[in-house]
Amino acid sequence: MPDATPVADADDHLARARALVERAIRRRWSDGMLTRDPDGVFTAILGAEHVERLMQPPQPIEGELLDDHVYPTETPLGGLVARVGAAPSEGDLFAVLLACETDPITARLCGYLGGNQAQFTITGDLLFEIVYRMRARDQSTAAALMHADLAPHGRSRRLKLLLVDGADSRAALAQGLRLHPRLTGWLLGQRALDAELGSSARLLPPIAPPESQGALEAGSVEQAARALRERGRLLLIDGPARSGREMLLHAAAASLDRPLLVMGCRGLTPDRVVAAFREAALQGALLAFHDVDELLAGDALARLRECLEVSDGTVAIVGAGATAARVAGLRPTSTVEVKVPPHEQRLELWRRSLGDDSALDAEECNEVASLYNLGVAGIVQASRAARERAAFERRPVGRADVALAVRHLFDADLAVVASRAEVSQSWDDVVLPDDLGEAIIGILDRIRFRNDVLGTWGFARKVGKGLGLTVLFSGEPGTGKSMVAGLIARELGLDLYVIDLSRVTSKWLGETEKNLARAFDAAEAGHVVLLFDEADTILGRRSADVRSSNDRHANLETNFILARLEQFQGIAFFTTNLASAIDPAVSRRMSANLKFPFPDVELRAELWRRMIPKEVPLDGEIDFHRLAESYELSGGFIRNIVLRAAYIAAREGTGVSMAHLERAARAEYTDRGSLLEGGRLV
Q: What percentage of the chain carries pLDDT values higher than 70?
């Protein structure tokens, strides 16, 4: 059952509506526009005598002329009129339409006024007679007032407080009008959130979240509250995902004793945009849109702009981006930026949020604060999830609980463009030249000690931008690029997500950039390593000679990545088999460029040796050096051959022998279409 509260002074609104209708009937009798036929033509239709019995004796009506009558703001109708900024005449309009929805006598009288309609409809003609002739000194003034209240671009029509039938096909006086069912329900005391908003909406009470105490910058909360206090502004809350943007907005709204209606924009339809503005007005809530860049496509953005033009309330946009720039010009705009707190503050937030039941020692807490570049909201949400998981299993919170909780925070965003990869190999499976091994150690150092170097030692101030880690792995196929990326992620205890470029790239303008932004935003929280395999697809050289829309689109994608890398603070690896195809500007912006050479004979022999697990039964001696000299192969092809030889041996019921390996090698060359057995496969 929906929540309901008594409707204070509902009888006063009904009494005024009845009086307005009765006065209109008597006026039409007097003007001769309605005959006083004593009996209706049929028994089901009212005659004048019946109407006389239904009506009260003529009484003076308060508010004879325009603006004379004002509905008290403490009543539901008066409060609604005040919150939506409606004119006094619109208050009468709402009162009459509500009475026709809820009072049978008023509905019968309106039906009689309209000529005893078989199908009762409140038309513009009836409302002109009932409301607007009452509110104006002459007919032309009444017509102008009615046009202002019912204009298609006006507030009542844009926010669908009123529904109009036949707006495109009938004259204004012949159009049917009624209250939107949500408005009727509200005025009758139904206070539950509008079902039309679906799961996209959350109504937060005017109580600051407890976890925000001491976690948010007081100056930022006060700045947001000042903007919310003024009517007709646009408040942009900028900052990384899970940085506490919504928490700050909630705290600011609570400081003004106002509820907050938060609308998620993914899958938001134009009708739900309108419903959000209408519901915010009904609830007296401040309205905020989250993930507003999801409105870049379709009609929802246009509907947002239309509603901003007629709504008086301050509207907040959480996560300012390209869409925010397109609507900011409609209103005076304030911007509040929410930043990820520095390492020491994150460490304190983790300790406080995980509570006394945490089993993490000081070193583990420091590692969590270093790896996960989360803001206030992310730390609070992850800590809550970790505590709940540990409590269910009746044990203290461990490091694995935190890692799983952080992963779940961003799974939904990453699942759109990436897949999580399980890393089963170990460093023992890797055979690399010494200089490349040193470079990999340097990459691990950049992540493990970045808070010391960038924070404590002050290098972040000197570097300025591009504080994340981006590495380009280049080399021929099978040289170990993707495997090393996975092992680095595993070494750090982070998840590896492989970007699916088929899901990232789109023929629609702006969609590729939006998908890439979603991946980069999730990685910036520090909880995952992004791997762009075959990255030359999106990092290709820009064309100076733009001859088609495809050239222009490709240049835009590369330009976006260049700009994004400048601001990136997460961890991302890019692999390519064709380093010459990468735009030089992109290569310069990488934190490191690792070239994976084709293995020489000694490295190939070691690869053959390490590729065979110790559990594998061998049939005779394996000459790994001869295999390395005979076949010029990278590690990926050696892996394929060893696996193929194992299946052959298993089918024959013997251990793996040298003959099996050579037989499998010949088959691999044949499958690859190579005419020269033993040459380099690519």
A: 88
Pair of tokens at residue 567: 């601001």
- Model confidence over 3-58: pLDDT tens digits? 433 333 446 688 889 889 988 988 888 888 887 776 655 444 667 777 777 777 76
Any bridge partners for residue 334, and if so which?
235
Whole-number pLDDT of residue 65: 42
CB 283 within 8 A of CB 261: yes
**Whole-number pLDDT of residue 5:** 34
- CA 302 → CA 289, 298, 332, distances in Å? 14, 8, 19
Closest C-alpha among 558, 509, 507, 565 to residue 537: 558
Distance separating alpha carbons of residues 46 and 116, to the nearest angstrom = 7
Question: How far is it, in rounded angstroms, from Cα 20 to Cα 63?
Answer: 11
DSSP letter string, 624-639: HHHHHHH----HHHHH
pLDDT in tens, 490-529: 888 788 888 877 777 666 666 677 777 777 877 776 578 8
pLDDT at 660 over 90: yes
Rounded to whole angstroms, the Cα distance separating 193 from 179 reads 18
The enclosing H or E element of 474 equals: strand 469-475
Which helix H or strand E contains 467, and what residues bound it?
Answer: none
Structure tokens belonging to residue 639: 């892996």
pTM of the predicted structure, to 2 decimals: 0.74
Q: Could you give all domains of the chain from N- to C-terminal order, each with its CATH number? A: 10-187 (no CATH), 195-337 (3.40.50.300), 343-415 (1.10.8), 427-596 (3.40.50.300), 601-671 (1.10.8.60)
Residue type, 639: R
Confidence (pLDDT) at 374: 85
The 3-class secondary structure across 84-124, one letter per residue, is HCCCHHHHHHHHHHHHHHHCHHHHHHHHHHCCCCCCCCCEH
Report yes or no: 257 and 206 within 8 Å, Cβ to Cβ: yes
363-410 per-position pLDDT tens digit? 888 888 877 878 888 899 999 999 999 999 999 999 889 988 988 887
- The answer to whether residues 53 and 23 touch, using CB atoms and an 8 Å cutoff, is no
Radius of gyration of the chain (CA): 35
Query: Is the pLDDT assigned to residue 274 strictly greater than 60?
Result: yes
| Encoded tokens for 422 | 């399980």
CA 1 to chain centroid, in Å, comes to 30
Q: Report the C-alpha gap between 535 and 594 in whole angstroms.
A: 14
* CA separation for the pair 401, 421 (Å, rounded): 19
Q: Can you say how many angstroms the Cα of residue 564 is from the centroid of all Cα atoms in its chain?
A: 19
Distance, in Å, from the CA atom of 647 to the CA atom of 642, rounded to the nearest integer, reads 9
Q: Taking the C-alpha atoms of 93, 94, 95 and 98 in order, what is their torsion angle to the nearest 10 degrees? A: 130
> Phi/psi at 372 (nearest 5 deg)?
-95, 105
